[in-house]
Amino acid sequence: MALEDTLKQLNQLDINDIDFSRVGVWPLAGRVALLVIVSALIVGAGYYFLISDRYQQLEFAQNKEKELFVEFEKKSFEAANLDAYREQLAEMEETFGALLQQLPKDTEVPGLLEDIDEYGRGSGLTIQEIALEEEQVGEFYVELPIRIEVQGGYHEFGAFVSGIAGMPRIVTLHDFTIETSKDGGALLNMAINAKTYRYKEQEGEG
After folding, report:
1. Fewer CB under 10 Å: which end of the chain, C or N?
2. What angle do CA 164, 168, 173 make, to 5 degrees?
3. pLDDT tens across 48-88, in order?
4. pLDDT per position as a tens digit, 123-179
5. DSSP letters of the chain?
6. Could you give phi then psi for residue 182, rounded to 5 degrees?
7. Which of 159, 130, 133 has the alpha carbon at shortest distance from 144?
């Protein structure tokens, strides 16, 4: 019966009649209601300030765990393939060294110009000009532009270009123009820009 009496008192409770200064003499139902409200506030505050913060820390830890797992997988893959990476690195260094050997040094540039001249004459062309132009300094290499002007026919031009492409030194060809001869003959004039390269560190070598 005590529970029924308490519930009955709660139903009859009027919030306008509540006097917080006399909590001690409140009916049992009022004190029970106040205790329930205070308990709920304490639990809510505790959840907000403690449990909610713990959830955020847990979420952060879970995200960190995922990042570390991905990094672990990456490191494991690299470790499993370390020997293959070393072999590839050795091959790249060997290839790079071979390419450097194809870059002419300062002392070899005059000989390179002579080789171009020989390829031109050997292809049946008339050499009008082969001139080394101003160097262009890049981050890792120095670019050496060469201006070439020759006279001949299309077949001779093709043989000349093929010869230059097959040279042991790296030489690239750019921006060619072909015009008819000014004297009105059957020969053509071709101007083409060739480029070779020198490894930049060689500038300080003796």
Report:
1. C
2. 30
3. 666 666 677 778 888 888 888 888 888 887 777 777 888 88
4. 999 999 999 898 888 777 788 899 999 999 999 999 999 988 888 778 889 998 999
5. -HHHHHHHHHHH--GGG--GGGGGGS-HHHHHHHHHHHHHHHHHHHIIIIIHHHHHHHHHHHHHHHHHHHHHHHHHHHHHTHHHHHHHHHHHHHHHHHHHHTSPPGGGHHHHHHHHHHHHHHTTPEEEEEEE---EE-SSEEEEEEEEEEEE-HHHHHHHHHHHHT-SS-EEEEEEEEEE-TT-SS-EEEEEEEEEEEEGGGGG--
6. -65, -25
7. 133
User: What SS3 class is residue 87?
Assistant: helix
- CATH superfamily for 104-204 is Ribosomal protein S6/Translation elongation factor EF1B (3.30.70.60)
